# Entry
Amino acid sequence: MMMILGYPAPLLFGQLLLGLINGAFYAMLSLGLAVIFGMLNIINFAHGALFMMGAFVAWMLLNYLGIGYFPALILAPLIVGAFGMVLERTLIRPLYKLDHLYGLLLTFGVALVIEGLFRNAYGSSGMPYQIPAVLGGGTNLGFMFLPNYRAWVVLVAIVMCLGTWLVIEKTRLGALLRAATENPAMVQAFGVNVPRLITLTYGGGVALAAFAGVLAAPIYSVNPNMGTSFINVVFAVVVIGGMGSILGSILTGFGLGVIEGLTKVFYPQASSTVIFLVMVIVLLARPGGLFGKAA
# Structure
């Protein structure tokens, strides 16, 4: 058996793959958080619940309407994104001029309500979501077995993250979003409906979380607690990358996923805390985050 650094190659590469998969979800979730915070200055603690909601919507589309995985990748983010826009218009909008703490407390309460409703309706044990047949099976690479669906998740996550970054940083729409954040009155004077733009931005960030939830459904059981296991780590990723930094969230999400995966090989006891240790070190050395602006 091939050995690397004294460890079997299948074990090392298997954990590296798991790290990339977790990193893909960290990147997509932190990307949505960074979009919402960077554009709207709202710390959206409901993000994990909306990620879970995306998985549940995909599950309900399949079991109640017979709508499969690939249509659900489009429909579930649209449905949850629309819910997010209603949430922004009714509950979050009055808090924009208040301290960040109010938005955090409100979205934390919204997350508890959403999770409680799904827990009462479906229980906590979790329900399976079948991997689509076309993505089933795997490929033997010689040094490891690569499941096709896991490779699909990593590839789609990279494309989605880079696509979102390009839209925000390189297009007129992204320029309008950034300008509306800095000087909404001036943008409004040029005929842009800033409140509608803000609502669409929040809905887009929520849709990213729901899209990640659909991708996660076949890997993790669909249950009301699936977002809770991610959200603390995702906030750490956003802080390390720099609050509001789109590129920072993407690179940090994937990077920390790999670090976490490799830690499970070399020092398993630290795998659950290594990301938070990295956060402490980064904040001591660079309080604004790796890609953020200095305070």
In short: The chain has a mean pLDDT of 85. DSSP finds eleven helices and four strands in the chain. The longest helix spans residues 9-40. The longest strand covers residues 138-140.
